[in-house]
Each structure stands twice: as C-alpha cells, then as structure tokens.
Design brief:
The chain is of the alpha+beta class. The chain has two helices and eight strands.
C-alpha cells in the first residue's frame, strides 16, 4: 500500500450570514460537491500564501487570512492505477478569511467549476464534502486546541 500525505489550506469566509463555497469536481467529472475555497500547498509554499492563492484562483476574490482556526486531519484509502491502494492522509489547515477585493467568478480548468455565497442556514441541505462542516464548526466554536469537535470528541477539552 502506498502512503500519501497532502497538506492543504482552506478559508472560511463568512459575511452577512453567508459563507463562500466552491463546487469541487472529481477528476473523472462524475462527482460534484461543495467545499471551502482552498487547496494543496506547493512545495516550499507557506500555508498562509496557499490560502490566498487558492481563494483567488477558485473565486476571483482577494482574501486575507485573519485567524488560523485549526487543523482538520483525515485518513482514507483510495484506489490508484495498476491495482495499488493509497493510504491517504490529508492535513487541512483552516483559516478564517476576510474578502478584501476582487469580483466573484468561477474557476476555469481547475478542480472547481462554481463559486457562490450560501446562507449559513442552507448549507446543511447542500451536497457537500465533510470539510465544510468541520470548517464551519471551527469557525463557530473556535476550540482552543484548533481541533474540530468532529475529530472524535464529544465536547471541547478547553481546560488542558
């Protein structure tokens, strides 16, 4: 089994009761789900710079990360070519983002095809990846340890 590690940075951008989301498209194009704007770090790139670059690429907006909300860690197994299975570990650094400029537009020739603002109370009805829920939980709860409650804990452990 091949081990894969992917480090990425994402932004939770909320304004006027709405959150900025992008629609992720699978490599095969057969699956589309809403996610937070962001993506993988380039080698040598600072995650702060990654989230700025990715928000602009996927939405057209200029964003300023204001707070590192936390880290969402996921483990999965994926099939790869030639019958190989990947033991995948994703580390997702989640920032609060402030939109400072630009104009909303959709990404072309990338991993997303739409960008839109959604009312926070309508997000639960969207076909979305779990990162949306983790990111919004980090934004809402602001756990001192930066770990989403969904990471196997039933209550925040703020006293340690």
């Amino acid at each position: 089994m091949r081990k894969e590690l992917r480090v990425a940075a994402y932004a939770v951008c909320v304004r006027d009761g709405q959150v900025l989301l992008v629609r992720w498209v699978s490599r095969q194009g057969d699956e589309k789900r809403w996610t937070l704007p962001g993506g993988g770090m380039d080698h040598g790139e600072d995650p702060y710079d990654t989230v700025i670059r990715e928000v602009e690429e996927e939405t057209g907006y200029t964003a300023r990360p204001t707070v590192l909300l936390g880290v969402d860690s996921v483990l999965r197994r994926y099939p790869r070519p030639l019958g190989v299975t990947a033991d995948f570990h994703g580390l997702r650094l989640v920032y609060e983002g402030l939109i400072t400029g630009g104009t909303l537009r959709h990404e072309t020739n990338g991993s997303t095809d739409l960008a839109a603002w959604y009312p926070l109370d309508e997000v639960a009805a969207l076909d979305r990846v779990e990162l949306v829920d983790s990111g919004l939980a980090l934004w809402r709860d602001r756990p001192a340890d930066g770990r989403p409650l969904s990471a196997g804990r039933s209550t925040p452990d703020r006293d340690r």
